[in-house]
Amino acid sequence: MNDPVPSPQEPLAGAAPVRRHLVIGTGAIAHAHASAVAAHQGRAAVVSAVDIDARRAEDFAAGHGIPHWSTDLAQALRKRPDLAHICTPPGSHVPLALQCIEAGVPVLLEKPPALSLAELDELLEASERNGVDVAVVFQHRFGATGLRLRQLLREGALGRPLVAVCDTMWYRPPEYFAVPWRGKWDVEGGGPTMGHGIHQFDLLLALLGDWTEVSAMAARLARETATEDVSTALVRFGNGALATLVNSLLSPRETSVLRIDTERATVEVEHLYGYSRDDWTITPAPGQESVTDSLATVATDGQSCHADQVGAVLDAMDSGGPLPVPLREARDTMELVAAMYASAFTGKTVRKGEIVPGHPFYTRMDGTGAPWAEDLSLEGASL
């Protein structure tokens, strides 16, 4: 083990400091974070990695040219890095983020930020009480075309949004769930609604604004998990628009689709894990051909990815502004997740603001229990 984080260096006169990043957890998604920081060389650098597995931390540091690694998070935090990236399994997100907050270190937290609204509110209270920012990784918001579309919708250039489709159709074989924390409510918080489709419908919420009510269904159709492997939902937005959502881990032809029909055009994107401008199309309504070039000013290079959001985080740090996406914004997305589960498991429409302390789906995403929970207990008894 070596010293976790080097002391900060004095920046050149007039130059923004090189931001010192700490990566907590060195599993699969951590590589995306390290590469995202490396894409901003000269502005930021990962200076240390921490993992409970010393060999994994050492290998990760060596693979990304990170000078220091450790198994001691408290020691790493005492060196006061500028930002901590939390890349661990979901069940550890809140405890680790709270430890960073108490040390005065801002956080970029992988999705889902918490296992429940109750946990998220605990983290939000600690963040605001200590004045330490916590941002959530929702990188699809930061692709250049997505940002441009958000601007167009807010300005009314495409007219009123009317109908939307938001599908995350992915495939995960049974062996994917052999990892101990996957497919379990207590440590992952949910299935594809919570951990996979959340990126795509978070982008939908960023584009269409506040949602008001949801009716949903969820099922465990083909995977031996405690959580669902597919869900569907109908969502109403404050502006009146209606959207359908599908989140699946059972779809051999994998795709991520977002389509928004407005008064003046259909705008849609199809990609898998990240989009570029070439993945988007715009189809004008009859007589509205002038909107065709609305997205043409976006550069063709680049893809919606962690590097886009890290760039936005660095901009915020340089300007002294709040980190994007703050917990209060991420809470809207998490509340929709909770509402989808509540609707699916109770058969009732759920309205925004309905899930509050005392509600069964406030403290657990499976609330009163998944409809197939009894089947799982019977399967266990037969083994």
Question: What's the helix and strand layout?
Answer:
Layout: E1 19-24, H1 28-38, E2 44-50, H2 54-64, E3 68-70, H3 73-78, E4 83-86, H4 93-102, E5 107-109, H5 117-130, E6 134-136, H6 144-155, E7 161-171, H7 185-188, H8 192-195, H9 198-208, E8 211-219, E9 230-237, E10 242-248, E11 250-262, E12 265-271, E13 280-284, H10 306-319, H11 327-346, E14 350-351, H12 360-363, H13 373-382
Parallel strand pairs: 1-2, 1-4, 2-3, 4-5, 5-6, 7-10
Antiparallel strand pairs: 7-11, 8-9, 8-14, 9-10, 11-12, 12-13
Q: Please tally the β strands and state the result.
A: 14
User: What structural class do helix, strand and pairing data support?
Assistant: alpha/beta
What's the multimeric state?
Answer: single chain
Radius of gyration: 21 Å
**Residue fraction in strands:** 15-25%
Average pLDDT over all residues: 94
Strands in their spatial order, largest beta sheet: 13-12-11-7-10-9-8-14
Run of helices and strands: EHEHEHEHEHEHEHHHEEEEEEHHEHH
Give a short account of the largest sheet.
Answer: 8 strands, mixed
Helix amount, in percent?
25-40%
Unreliable runs: 3-13, 377-383
What overall form do the CA principal axes indicate?
A: globular
Termini separation: 43 Å
Query: What's the total helix number?
Result: 13
